[in-house]
Each structure stands twice: as C-alpha cells, then as structure tokens.
Amino acid sequence: MQFRVAHFLYPSHNDGDIRSSCVLGEIMITFEQVNCFRAVYEEGSYSAAARAIDKDRTTVREHVLALEDVLGEALFSIQGKKAQPTHFASHLYPRARHLVKQAQDFESVAFSIQQVALTQLTLCYDIQVPSQLLADVDQRISEVFPHLTLRWLQRDREHASTLLEKGLAHFAMMPTLRDVSPPEKIGAFRMGSCGYGVYVHPTSSLNGSEQVSIQDLSEHPQLVSSNVFITGERTMQVSNQYHEVNSVDLTVRLLGNRGWAVINHLDAKIYEQQGLISRIKVSDLVHDYQTSLALLYSFAFESNPTIKKCMQLIRESCRELLT
Fold first, then answer.
1. pLDDT grade, residue 301 (50/70/90)?
2. pLDDT band, residue 124 (cuts 50/70/90)
3. Model confidence pLDDT, tens digit, residues 42-81
4. Per CATH, domain 2-114 is 1.10.10.10
5. Three-state SS at 248
6. Rounded to whole angstroms, how far apart are CA atoms 38 and 34?
7. Which class does domain 118-323 fall in?
8. Where are the beta strands (DSSP E) in 31-89?
9. Continuous segment of H or E residues that includes residue 103
10. Domain residue spans in the chain?
11. β-pairing, 242-244 with 23-30?
12. Cα–Cα nearest to 204, from 113, 277, 104, 101
C-alpha cells in the first residue's frame, strides 16, 4: 500500500534558474514504512518492533530510514539498544497509529465480504458456560443453516481470544472478567447471567441435614472447575480441600464418591431429574452464585451475513435461558 504526498517546490533563484510557478511532485510513503515507524515508537527498539510485527530487524530499520529520507527529518536517536523518538516523531505517532488501525480494519472488512459462503462455524466455550445453552444455540443454528458444520471447542479465554484474533474461530462464549477489555480485533457483548447452586449426591450426609452452613461445606471436599481460578470467581471456592474437574458430567459422577460442587442450574436440572444429584440450601447464602457471560466475536467476520444471523440466534437463546 502506498500513499501519495503532495510536495510543493516554491520559486527559487539558485544558479540563475528562475521558476515562476510551483511544481507539484509526488513522494511515495508506503504503509510498511508507517507501520514500522509505529512499531518502533511503541516498542522502543528495532529488535522489539521486529518481533511485534513479525519482520526482520534489518527490514524494519530500512523502512524507518526510508521514511526519514522522504520526510527529511530524523525520527529516532539510538541510545544503546533503545530508539528514542524525536519531537517530530512524537508529533507524527498518533496519526501513524490511527492510519495503521484504519488499514487493519479495512483489510478485515474486505476479506470478510469475500467470505460470504461459510461452510464451517467454529465456536469456543468455557467450561462455566451451561451445556444446555450451547445445545440450544447449536439447535437454532442447525435449523437455519442445516449444511453448516459446527465445531465446538472448549478453550479458556486466552486461547479463545488468540483463535479469534487469527480468524480461526468465529465466536467464543466466556465468563466476563472484571476490568478486562477484549483485544482490538475482537468485539464483545453481554449474554446475560447464569445462576449456580450447591449440589451433592442424594446419599451425601450434607443432603440429610436440615441446615447447611458455609462452615459445614468447608469441612467437606469440593469439586471445582480450574477455570474458577482463571476468571477470578474465587467466591465459588469455599473448601480448603478441593479437586479440580473440568467437566460438569464428570463432576456429577464424582459426587457419588465424595464432596459437593457448585453447578449451574441449567445443567443441574437435567441431572436432578435423573436422580444423580440434589440441591441443598446454604443458610449463609441469601442469593445464588451468579456468573456474567459474554459473547466474543471476530471483527474479521462481522460483515458476513451468516455470522450476523448466527449472532442474532445466539442473542435469542441467551434471552430465553439466561437472566
């Protein structure tokens, strides 16, 4: 990508050459030069910038030097291994950052328009997202797009975000994180909240008690999802003796051996009907545990008609099943 910069040569009298009018020339500034300048400014060195944009250090330096030649001004002064920006560079940086962002957005939209006919939809989900919600979303999408292959991948937030940024996934359903915003290439909206309760096996001694306190729970083993620690939902972890289990179905089976667990009500309802678990009321808790869920999506596909419709179907499912 190249940008044309108007360059005016004003009248001069050098060597007797009199120019009576302005001469309009063209100086070519490339997107790569601007992007390399931005990267060096943000990273503080040519080596770090090269790693950030996946290019050779020599290539990055050559682009910056070429830009300096075009502009006729130094952009950085080298102090040790650091590239210190000049006052001129500081003035240009906000515009360079904006230009790079606009170019990336343009590229994402341009490619997404070409991908109208999706044959496969990849959805990531966290273990804390109710499987009943996932099943409902699956059914809604399959009914509207019967020939669309759905790939459901259980991933934590970090790995799901990486897939979305690389265009390898279309959606990710995740618990929200406090004070954490999605990366620039990812959009998000709130799906709703999911309620959780304390569940045990029907034969558990806890199920036979008229009143169960948090102190009582702390004296029994707890089955906990490891993602509770990743998302910061530490309020769900009560007992000092706990076992990490990354499957609701396995959690239900293990409750037959020991302990108790916090399970979302949507999934627990099915197991309760089968007589596999029982919900107990905890006297210390006024309200159920609540986890807020968010849908993350890649900006690279947001203009695709199929993606737009799937997003609408997911919203409808959330409105029906979540609070």
1. confident
2. very high
3. 999 999 999 998 899 999 999 999 999 999 999 999 998 8
4. yes
5. helix
6. 6
7. alpha beta
8. 76-79, 82-85
9. helix 87-114
10. 2-114, 118-323
11. unpaired
12. 277
